[in-house]
Specification:
This protein is α/β, with parallel strands linked by helices. The protein has two domains: 2-175 and 360-385, Rossmann fold (3-Layer(aba) Sandwich), CATH 3.40.50; 179-357, Glycogen Phosphorylase B (Rossmann fold, 3-Layer(aba) Sandwich). Helix content is 46%, strand content 17%. It is built from 15 helices and 15 strands. β13 (278-281), α11 and β14 (302-305) form a beta-alpha-beta unit. α1 (12-31) crosses α15, α3 (75-83) packs across α4 and α8 (213-223) crosses α13. It is globular. It starts with a strand and ends with a helix. 43% of the residues are buried.
Length: 386
Amino acid sequence: MKILNVDVMIDPITGGGGVERTFQMSKYLVHSNQECTLLATNLRASTKRIKALSGVKVVLLNCLFARFYIPSFSYAQIKQIVASCDIIHMMQHWTALNAIVYIIARQLNKPYVICPAGSLPQLGRSKVIKNIYNLIIGNRIIRHASGHIAISPDEIVQFAKYSIHPKQVSLIPNGINVENLCFQGDNDFKKKYGVGAGKFILFMGRLNAIKGPDLLLDAFIQIHEKLPNYHLVFGGPDEGLLQELKNKVLLHNLDYRIHFLGFLSGNDKSKAYDAADFLAIPSRQEAMSIVVLEAGVTATPVLITDQCGMNIIEKIKGGKVVPATRDGLQQGILDMTNSPTNLLKMGNNLKGYTYENFRWDSIIKKFLALYESILKNKNIILSETD
């Protein structure tokens, strides 16, 4: 098959989990002997990142307006790319690039699948613009798709608001490349980043309101005296909250126990998970957190909110699920820190669950099965028409 993947960018620092999903999916499609083209903007695209997509044909359009990922493009160029593929996989929802590809795909009668990766709800800024986008083209992109992909059960409900029946939605969760997270080094990490020799709680993600780092910080500050042996470590790029968070830390004179490390990748990211006592994910809204899977690879238990699309974590005893509030996180932290032995068991449970269900070499088969089904159905329809 010839598959065209469409996303806003390839940079994981700005793009987050959705972009990483597209990146890994593209690589594993090639590993499965498929032809894959990745179409995105060149916003913050690094040579290293492009080289890591060995075997994938990468087409990057100049980004004219970073705020809304508006690309500079040639109609003839996009038409040629779309015409040469068998099926298109669009990621995200509120993007000009999806709209452009959609229009051309409809003209050429090319099937496409849509995976919003949690972006369907109108959260955050620009609600008026999002309403206009949906009115003009967004609703049609969702309705006319040959396949709809949810990465968690919660997202199936979000599709229903766009008049997509649950039976039309394929549940294909995020995958994880375990080879990227095999580096250990508890003491190495703590020494390098100066986070103290003792225990610490880890936050890994972008510092924006949706990810909830402010909730986690407030919760920790309120109960820090009950946790004299614990530090709090934030790993992730700033998206507008960093200075506010730092000011709050200084106000409470806790800069010696609360650390902001910026974006972590490679060995440092793996070692951060390995060194942490547990990972905290205080998200206000998320379809399915990739960092849960990353923690699972390193047997790091997790404390998550009930807005992360992973409530099964508590069922498999891989961590604890709490309300997305300061009080909920406070109680969760206290519960998690009460029993080091229980943390070890949770971590091992999460690791087993992750390896069994979320390795990319098995996840990619679900994509291929969906594509083959869509193409087979299209061929039958064309044959009947003839």
